[in-house]
């Protein structure tokens, strides 16, 4: 039954992508982030994202829907990052393996650029936020309930055959999405809806803790700190954070506390030492190779050459050292520049849109995007999610929000002189919006 239901949804998204490609972008994002076909019985290997993405690209050029090809610092920097990845590809140490991941990353980044062309309205931003929340919230809410029912004795894992299959990766995804859930809650009016979203956010936090991911714990702490700093009443905010934190942590078993305590005694933890060894390998590789080693360098062959301990082979477990080892110092600089820009763009719309009834929602979005970025920056220091779609969708929301606000301000400035026109002109031309431009 679920297979048939998914085929119907795919067919609808496919047809709509030709007529309204912005719907195709939302469909692509859903499949790319959530991978709902992995929940079916017979459709797990079907390339649904590619099908919808192809229809979206055709619709981009054949429909008359609004498109915005304007350049901004974020999409220019993203294109430079894509160009650099293309430049480093021929220098990959393991070309065949690198080429496969290169194709996947280029597809993701291309669709992120297309999203910035096609999405432009408040409705688009709200729908994109809902798609991201539903895609990760499905696993987070379910994982949170599982954690409570089992007393946290078992780890929460992500969907198989996806970027977030591991417990650490799904935990970071959940952490990033919680602020977006808070943003949507702030726009709700019905009490039952707000209450439901509160329950979902609590379950999401429980799922992140239930993953037994130390990086997720640090990411949650970083986000809580940002929220406290932004709050108007810091005392009440601090008390609320402490009470909620104690309530959630009290449900976790002794083995969870033992694992979290290794943050302080990482010298005796094999997993932590393995990560440090991987970071050392990335540093040595980048120093010796200007173009980095290409994708998929986290193998015994490469560790034998550049690893401080050649026998301790680990994945990067860090968005920063992953990019450093694979794309070199130049690639890391571009990557950091890109997300620094997104941080300041989100902060700009948070400040400029604040206090005005028609734009307060955008201020809320900017603030929550910064909270998500704080979680990604801290949690990502210990997890390998450098190229996955979700953080780049935060970029899309920030860019579209800034464009929307700039259009709003431009229209207001364009319309403002009309209020000073003589009264007889108002009577002659009727409503203010019907007045001729001065």
Explain the overall architecture.
Residues 200-336 form the O-antigen ligase-related domain. The chain crosses the membrane at residues 43-63, 75-95, 101-120, 127-150, 170-188, 200-229, 235-254, 288-307, 319-344, 365-384. The structure is a single chain. With 438 residues, the protein is mostly helical. It has 17 helices and no strands. The protein folds into two domains: 1-65; 72-416, no CATH class. It has helices at 2-19, 21-34, 48-62, 73-88, 95-118, 122-150, 167-186, 191-210, 214-230, 234-249, 254-261, 270-288, 300-306, 319-352, 360-379, 389-415, 423-429.
Termini Cα gap: 61 Å
Helices, by number, come to 17
Number of strands: 0
Strand content: under 5%
Q: Average pLDDT across residues?
A: 86
- Report the helical percentage: over 70%
Radius of gyration: 23 Å
Elements, N to C (H/E)? HHHHHHHHHHHHHHHHH
Shape: globular
Biggest sheet: strands, sense, closure? none
Number of domains: 2
SS content category: mainly alpha
Ranges where pLDDT stays below 50 over 5 or more residues in a row are 417-438
């Amino acid at each position: 039954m679920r297979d048939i239901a998914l085929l119907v949804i795919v067919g609808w998204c496919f047809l709509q992508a030709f007529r309204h490609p912005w719907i195709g972008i939302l469909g692509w994002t859903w499949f790319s982030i959530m991978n709902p076909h992995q929940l079916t019985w017979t459709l797990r290997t079907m390339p649904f994202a590619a099908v919808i993405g192809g229809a979206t690209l055709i619709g981009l050029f054949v429909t008359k829907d609004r498109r915005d090809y304007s350049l901004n610092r974020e999409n220019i920097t993203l294109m430079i990052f894509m160009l650099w990845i293309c430049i480093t590809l021929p220098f990959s140490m393991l070309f065949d393996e690198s080429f496969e991941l290169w194709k996947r990353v280029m597809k993701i980044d291309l669709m992120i650029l297309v999203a910035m062309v096609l999405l432009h309205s408040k409705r688009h931003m709200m729908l994109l936020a809902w798609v991201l929340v539903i895609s990760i919230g499905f696993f987070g809410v379910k994982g949170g309930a599982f954690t409570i029912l089992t007393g946290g004795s078992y780890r929460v894992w992500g969907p198989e055959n996806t970027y977030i299959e591991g417990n650490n990766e799904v935990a970071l995804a959940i952490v990033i999405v919680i602020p977006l859930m808070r943003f949507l809650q702030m726009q709700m009016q019905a009490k039952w809806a707000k209450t439901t979203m509160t329950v979902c956010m609590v379950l999401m936090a429980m799922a992140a803790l239930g993953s037994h991911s130390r990086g997720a714990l640090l990411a949650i702490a970083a986000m809580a700190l940002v929220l406290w700093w932004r709050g108007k009443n810091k005392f009440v905010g601090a008390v609320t954070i402490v009470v909620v934190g104690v309530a959630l942590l009290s449900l976790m078993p002794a083995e969870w506390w033992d694992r979290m305590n290794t943050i302080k005694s990482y010298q005796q933890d094999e997993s932590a030492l393995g990560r440090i060894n991987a970071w050392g390998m990335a540093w040595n590789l980048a120093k010796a190779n200007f173009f980095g080693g290409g994708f998929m360098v986290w193998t015994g062959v490469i560790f034998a050459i550049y690893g401080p301990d050649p026998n301790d082979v680990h994945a990067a477990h860090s968005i920063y050292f992953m990019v450093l080892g694979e794309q070199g110092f130049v690639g890391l600089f571009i990557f950091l520049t890109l997300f620094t820009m997104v941080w300041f763009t989100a902060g700009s719309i948070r400040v400029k849109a604040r206090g005005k009834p028609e734009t307060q929602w955008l201020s809320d979005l900017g603030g929550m995007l910064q909270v998500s970025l704080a979680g990604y920056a801290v949690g990502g220091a210990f997890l390998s999610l450098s190229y996955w779609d979700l953080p780049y969708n935060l970029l899309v929301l920030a860019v579209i929000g800034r464009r929307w606000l700039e259009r709003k301000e431009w229209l207001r400035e364009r319309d403002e002189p009309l209020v000073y026109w003589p009264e007889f002109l108002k009577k002659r031309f009727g409503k203010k919006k019907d007045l001729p431009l001065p």
